Amino acid sequence: MYSVAHQFRYAIRQLANSPGFAIVSVLTLALGIGANIAVFSVTNAVLLNPSGIPHAANLVALRAHYDNPPDLGNISLSAPDFADAAEGKDIFSGAAIMNGSSFNFSRENANPELMQGARVSSGYFDVFEVRPALGRVFTPEEDQPGAGLVVVLSYQAWQKRFAADPNIVGRSIILDQRSYRVIGVMGPEFNWPNQAELWVPIALPPARYHDQNYRYNEYLFGVARLRPGVTLQQANAYLKMKAQENIVSEGTNSYGRISGWGMFSMPLTEFIGGKLRKPLLMLLTAVGMVLLIACANIAGLQIARASARQRDLAVRIALGASRGTLIRQALVESIVLTVAGLVLGFFVALASAPLLLKGLPPSLGEHLHLSFAGPVLFFVVIVAAVCSLLCGVVPAWHRTQPGWYSALHESGRSGTAGRGGQRARSVLVIAQVALSLLLLAGAGLLFSSLKALETVETGFQVSGVASAYFSLPKTVYAKDEQQAAFMTSLEERLRAIPGVQSAALIDAIPFSNNGGSASFFIQGQTRSANAPPPHGNIHLISPGFFATLRIPFLQGRDFTDEDRKSTEQVAIVDEVLAHQYWPGQDPIGQHISINDLNKGPWITIVGLVQHSRENSLEADTNEGTYFLPIAQVSNDTAGLLVRSSRPAEGLTADLASAVRAGDSSVPIYDVKTMERRVNESLVGRKFVVMLLGTFAALALLLAALGLYGIISYSVRLRTRELGMRMALGAQRGTVLKLVLMHGLRLAAIGIVVGVVFAAFLGRIFTSLLFRVSVLHVVPWLCAAALLISVVLVASFLPARRAASIEPMKALRTE
Predict the structure, then answer these.
(1) 492 and 350: one domain?
(2) Buried (b) or exposed (e) across 308-319, using 16+ Cβ within 10 A?
(3) Are residues 243 and 317 in the same domain?
(4) Which helix (H) or strand (E) holds 348?
(5) For the residues of 638-665, what is the DSSP string, one character each?
(6) CA-to-CA distance for 786 and 180, rounded, in angstroms?
(7) How far apart (Å, rounded) are the C-alpha atoms in residues 82 and 59?
(8) Residue 521: strand, helix, or coil
(9) Residues 291-317, mean pLDDT to the nearest whole number
(10) Strands 516-519 and 150-153
(11) Are residues 592 and 652 located together in one domain of the fold?
(12) Is the same domain home to 563 and 596?
């Protein structure tokens, strides 16, 4: 014990004697470790352990899928689907369903506000294993049609909207113009789904869970908790068996068999992470590479220090110091540096993690709660151990080499140990250059991909358009005629706003991630027994939608105010849907049905428009869209679109007034310009490009420092040799070139090694690119050129110092 304590004291004294080295090493490690902790904490909160959900690894999302069409490979459940899954008592310890919803919250002397929430089954909170901070949760009796109206608030809503009133339980609040009794407030961390401010019972009729007419009406999110010892494979085997039982019961030519319908489960953490999984894992890999570069830098500096102290180490060896002692001493110094870097790195992580959250998509980043306990602490311990080894193993190995024994005999003039250290440092610098090349080229490829994505056409004109959502309370607008009357009058008020050129309503605003799709049938077309029915995106719109977004008409007519519930049902299709299902034909006058074949009612196609993108510039399913008049299909939630000669950002108050003029209890929400919606679809990709670019710049800086260190120490160790060359007639330019070429050789080897590694990593990286090949030469050439430039700059100062050596003084140097 005394020996270990003595070695730590000795290590601290040695580092205190080299304050420059110690400060640079600690700061370098702090940046590398802090960045790793910050990125891992976000990754942990998104992918591994969502905050507020205990034992998330045992939770699964229950999903349905269709083989035809393939873009429905992961969708929500129907009520009968959930009932089948919940029967697996040996597989699941509990299961629940949820349907996201919004509520108009009203109170005296205040404008109405929208509260995002969810309708959930009574076992919902038990499945998540969460308990309320105040009050209680729903009972099975309250999850029935006609039961009393009760609500559980989120902790955030309780604080924000009710001033953390400790007596809130038992009070009534007005939602959708109905009185709900507050029975509980959840804890501060749980708010699944992310935007939920409240939860109410879903209260489906019990018969709905077993009514096969609702089998393919998928609108519910299902979640279940696996029993201890049950695997995901076992759960999926059970769900597949239940799906097959239903398909068999439907008959030979059933819709489920033809469409390849089925059920499956997936880890809830994977479902939550979604499209962020690959980018976050890539960033975690990138920041890990930065830490490797930092460790290689410190290892190189450690070797350089050892080379400068070779006489001192040789004396210790001569006095009986064993190899084990020297190895332990090198590792102890590494541990001291790592611990200091770790402490400072925690502060770096605390400062940078909130900045990372701001870079995430707002729907996710605003509701994440970062924790630096549990898995993050375990990660920190692993990182500290790895850093200690990486920073200490190579210097420890270097100190055990035989060259140190000759240093004492040759009065410190031997280059044996120095040349050995030089080779080790050269390998470390080559590794740094290779890793830097990967990061720089990767950032360049993603930047090129982002620029390619920004040139993609949406299919409509985004500038000058304001948009917002509103929801009509079903208790007041229960009839289709009431909903249609409100929307018709709202359109008139929107068009009357000063500066408005056109206005329209739509069930799901483009680029708001709310669109839906549905199968349909074509009159007169026959399908083979195993062919799936036609399928497309579906939208409910008002007249003027295409004019407001300036989507060109190719043929036919727009909807008019005459297209109402009592008139002939009509539809408009886009060019992709027309080419897919009426190739070489005129779609105008064709008839489709969204109900079963030969049962109608038939809908006449009256218009053909240009294709436009739904929710992403990047992912277009190549699936067409058909549009129906919003006045002919009941819908209590809609988006409004207004094109104005005035700035779109300044129309919020006018839009709210137009809606409240029809019903003072109805608020608007999600108010954004269309330009902002399109730009927000790129937030995730911009976030990755920005971070990867930052990490690449940090890696480049560390590589430059590492190269500067090795060249400087190389010049110092070769002082006598360089002095001899100049004494024998070598010109100063020759010496300058000699040192610069040494740095360029290391850079060239590192670049080659980096390209070789890229060949192995190309397939992984390809999935993150858009219209850019991983072999796109420009980013690689730019990265290589930048590295070479940095190498020349880092090598120039040592090279100039070498060229200014006085030959006679160098030859006299001990």
Answers:
(1) no
(2) bbbbebbebbee
(3) no
(4) helix 323-359
(5) EEEEEEESS-GGGGHHHHHHHHHHH-TT
(6) 64
(7) 15
(8) strand
(9) 71
(10) unpaired
(11) yes
(12) yes
From 219, 216, 217, 210, select the one nearest 255 (Cα to Cα).
Answer: 216
pLDDT of residue 405: 46
Of 458 and 279, the one with more pLDDT: 458
Structural tokens at position 106:
């009203």
Report the candidate in 348, 318, 316, 229 with the shortest Cα–Cα distance to residue 698.
Answer: 348
The helix, strand and coil proportions of the chain, stated in percent and rounded to the nearest 5, come to 55, 15, 30
The enclosing H or E element of 574 equals strand 570-574
* Domain assignment of residue 169, yes or no: yes
Residue 161 in contact with residue 105, Cβ under 8 Å?
yes
Give the whole-angstrom CA distance, residue 348 versus residue 166.
37
> For residue 54, is the peptide bond before it cis, meaning its omega torsion is within 30 degrees of 0?
no
What does the longest C-alpha to C-alpha distance in the chain come to? Answer: 107
- What does the alpha-carbon distance between residue 280 and residue 189 come to, in Å, rounded to a whole number? 22
Q: 């229950």: which residue's tokens?
A: 62
Give CA angle at 30 (24, 32), nearest 5°: 105
Asked whether residue 549 falls in the same domain as residue 591, the answer is: yes
Q: Could you tell me the pLDDT band of residue 415, with boundaries at 50, 70 and 90? A: very low
Q: What is the pTM of this model?
A: 0.79
Residues 491 and 570 in one domain: yes
The rounded radius of gyration (Å) of the Cα atoms in the chain is: 34
SS3 label, residue 111: coil
N-terminal to C-terminal alpha carbon distance within the chain: 39
Q: Which residues contact 590 (CB under 8 A, 6 or more apart)?
A: 522, 523, 582, 604, 605
Q: Which of residues 664, 689, 705 is at a domain's end?
A: 664
Are 232 and 109 spatial neighbours (Cβ–Cβ below 8 Å)?
no
At which of 379, 414, 449 does a domain end? 414
Tell me, what's the pLDDT at 427? 83
Residue 71 and residue 5 share a domain = no
Residue 630 within a domain: yes
How does residue 494 score in pLDDT terms, banded at 50, 70 and 90?
A: very high
Task: Specify whether the CB–CB gap between 613 and 604 falls below 8 A.
Answer: no
Fill in the DSSP letter of residue 75.
Answer: B
Whether 212 is covered by a domain: the verdict is: yes
CA distances from 661 to 471, 658, 719, 782 (A): 14, 5, 87, 59
Q: Is residue 670 included in any domain, yes or no?
A: no
Please check whether residues 628 and 521 belong to one and the same domain: yes
Number of folded domains that form the chain? 3
Distance from C-alpha of 271 to C-alpha of 282, rounded to nearest angstrom: 18
Domain membership of residue 256 as a residue range: 67-260
| Residue range 347-385, pLDDT digits in tens | 988 888 887 877 766 666 666 677 777 788 888 889 888
Tally the residues of the chain.
814
Name the nearest CA neighbour of 158 among 111, 125, 196, 112. 196
CA distances (Å), 732 to each of 721, 737, 811, in order? 14, 9, 16
CA angle 774, 780, 783 (to 5 degrees): 135
> Is the backbone peptide bond immediately before 552 cis, with ω within 30 degrees of 0?
no
Residue that has been written with the tokens 């001899």 in this structure? 724
| Token pair for 126 | 């038990």
